[in-house]
Give the backbone structure.
Amino acid sequence: MAIATKRNITERKQAGETIHQSEEKYKRLFELSPIGITTLNMKGVITDCNPAVYREGGYTADELVGKHFSQIAPLRVSDIPKQIKMFSSIIRGKTPEPFEIAYTRKDGTTGWTEVHVSLLKANGKKLGIQVLQRDVTDRKQAEEVLQTEKNKLQSIINAMEDGLTIQDADYNIIYQNELLRKIFGDHLGEKCYRVYEGREKLCDGCPLEKAFKDGKSHTSERKVVMPSGEVAFWENTANPVRDAKGNIVSCLEITRNTTERKQAEEKLRLLSSVTQQVSDATLVTDLDFNITYVNKATQDLLGYSIEEVLGKHLGSFNAKPLPESLEQELEQTVTSGKLWVGEMVKRRKDGSTFLGKCHISPLYDKQGKISSYIDVMHDITDRKRAEETIHQQNEFLNNILNSLTHPFYVIDANDYTVKMANLAAELGDLSENQTCLRSVMSRHTQKISF
């Protein structure tokens, strides 16, 4: 006798088919995923890796599967203790936050991967560990390049002699470079006008306000009382900073302390005022003897305007070129830091000439180096003519005195020294600079009156 039973297994078949389909779907995802997937058992032995893992690291399945994760080549030795500790924590049920770790590829290069670890469970039972690995090498390399460039930029900014600050649209300070932090202190988040000028509202003529309004660069000069109490002048230039959509989100402001320049300009103004009043022509040249400054007396003496003189070589106004030996003497004297004095024939704009006496000497910068030369020149033509006239008159007088047949003396009233004697006197008893007056007078009947 036979007993037959009949059971409806449709649901079981459908469930089995569903499981099979899920497994196939998982397998396809596992095989095709661009993200590396590695599974480990509860002892830390690698049970499987998808193709993305082999592709990124260059290793084969034989080099990874079946090995304890702490013994595989990609894991750097220095990271092993930390990873073992993390594995112990995971199997106790504590899932770590995603992290990034460097690994060694088979070709010896270093890659970076972002790791997501999760515990695999079924019916409350721990089956193993799944590791998702997303290669972030390109991003890390880009970040390293970006960080290197950022460090370079920061070094440049910190080395600047200018201050650099960034303010948002509400005029809050969101960046200060090292120079400004040293002078004013660290004031991130505070209003720029309160920190830098001690005001409770925007500064008059604020370049930031203008830059925010029209999107252009603006510059202003400010007189500021420093934290030390010193009064300083600052030149501030504001430039708008835009986001990816072109909207102005902040302003970069470069601040330059112009106090020394202002003081130098004031000194130069005073010097210019003084030199404009002196009667001697004053010319300043660069190191190549090209004229950079002249006073009014120079214009009057030469007959040229300032524009016609500036940039010309100092020797351009000589009536004729200096002898080479004299030119070398002049240059060697002033370049060695000494004063050169000499006479030169100069030519005016109208073609006339004059004899000029030149005093040329070096000027020095703050480091003590020669930065320029100054030539103080005056017209000595009339003086030379007068000296020549006096010389000719003296020659004429000497000729007359020497033509006399009797002695002639000029004697100092204080010490009776003979100051002048004609030829007849010198042939007699006394000549110039002798003092035997009494013996001379006793032998001569002629009386000399003073």
